[in-house]
Model the fold of this input.
Amino acid sequence: MKIYSDMKRLTMYAIASNLITEDDFDYVVNRLSNLLLIDEYMDQSIGYVDVEEPSSLLAPILDYAHEIGLFTPNTVTFRDLFEAKIMDIFTPRPSEIEHVFSLLHTQDKQSATNYFYNLSQKNNYIKTARTSKNVIWKSKTPYGEFDMTINLSKPEKDPRDIIAQGKKSSTSYPQCLLCKENVGFYGNATHPGRSNHRIVKLLLNEEEFYLQYSPYVYYDEHSIVLKKEHVPMNVTKKTFIRLFDFIDYLPHYFLGSNAGLPIVGGSILSHEHYQGGRHHFAIEDAKVLSSYQVADVTVKQLFWPLSVIRLESTNRGSIIEMADQIYKFWEQYTDESAGIYAFTTAPHNAITPIARKNGDLYVLDITLRNNLTSEEFPLGIFHPHPENHHIKKENIGLIEVMGLAVLPARLASELPMIKDVIVGDLEIPQELDIHKEWIKELKQTYQQEDINQFLNDAVTLKFVKCIEDAGVFKQNVDGVNHFNQFMEALINVLN
Ligand SMILES: [Zn+2]
Done:
């Protein structure tokens, strides 16, 4: 039977990828046979399988499993659930991974994350066949060179998934997509398969956290750090201590927190978590508008679309104390002429803190945020404005604060159509209606240069406008004056 050779190919891949060793061969083949309801396994002679990732090896096994009725409907969602269960057979248990990770960490910190990241890709928890389809480019802006991404690795729901889910009552376990109880969880039509998902324990501020990788990798080694308990996001002094404990433990990674308030926060506010990883972001090279020295901390005001204060010191204790003072000062700060109100019926001021380490130097970027809404801007005054929603409407989280755009998947099909309209000087079709005004402008400025570059740069400049909208002090003469006033008042308090 062909299924025997398919099983053998996958097993040989797992050996070549160091997920298992040759000594595990009989064990994994027996477990796989049992999963696929095969009574006996007939070895097929395949010595070596040379593929980078397992999707082509898994496809025929998933077809077989569906044909014999192991899952239905045959949608991407349900194939993914069963696939995770297959790959779980080739994935070490959580405690084994933790053991290897901490052993490697004592020798070389980077080798520990290399091991865990590689494993998360090889066992197809991170589906590289899908993430490689993401659209990525870089464009120059007045603030530096931005990273632009259109993420296509999240599969879209099939109507059959929704029908399948309709038959089952929803459960509250695990409580959310981040909870540690997702490890090994089979999943369902609305909850992705986590059978092959693994996390590694961390101690931050003497509290238990876990490190995992994002399955959708927005950038290199995109990590998520989640709290053991399912408790809401909340930025406090403890947040700074946790961020610094993390970058001391893994100094080659950055770690940041989204604000704890809606509109200016991330997409999951219900579970305390941070995002980190290993990537050089545009914000790291931002120009400095002014710089102050307060004891052993350098305080910098950045030239950036959002309002960012950078703290630098070799003394982490000093930075933590100062960050806490700045946060408390900002929480109470009102500047009516700039439209900033700390309170109405609820508090509005928040921060997005991001920590990293350059050698011995600790760096903490604090972005000032405000979630006030108005009749004109019901989604947020300091949020992308309606005229920019055709590019980005979602919250501006810490990844975008750093100069990496995560754009909606629809743009991957809309941008080629827009290219045709501009190059061919065509009428704007109805499906591009949301981009109508923008396309008119682009048609006027297009001068037969390379259309791909032209359009990429135009999208980037629109994205810059989206995050400028999220800035509390604007980068114009008036806005910088307000920012300077804030900085002077702040430095007085810090001194
Ligand atoms: Zn949770």
Remarks:
- The first strand starts at residue 135 and ends at 141.
- The pocket of zinc ion is lined by residues 175-176, 178-179, 230, 271 (CB under 6 Å).
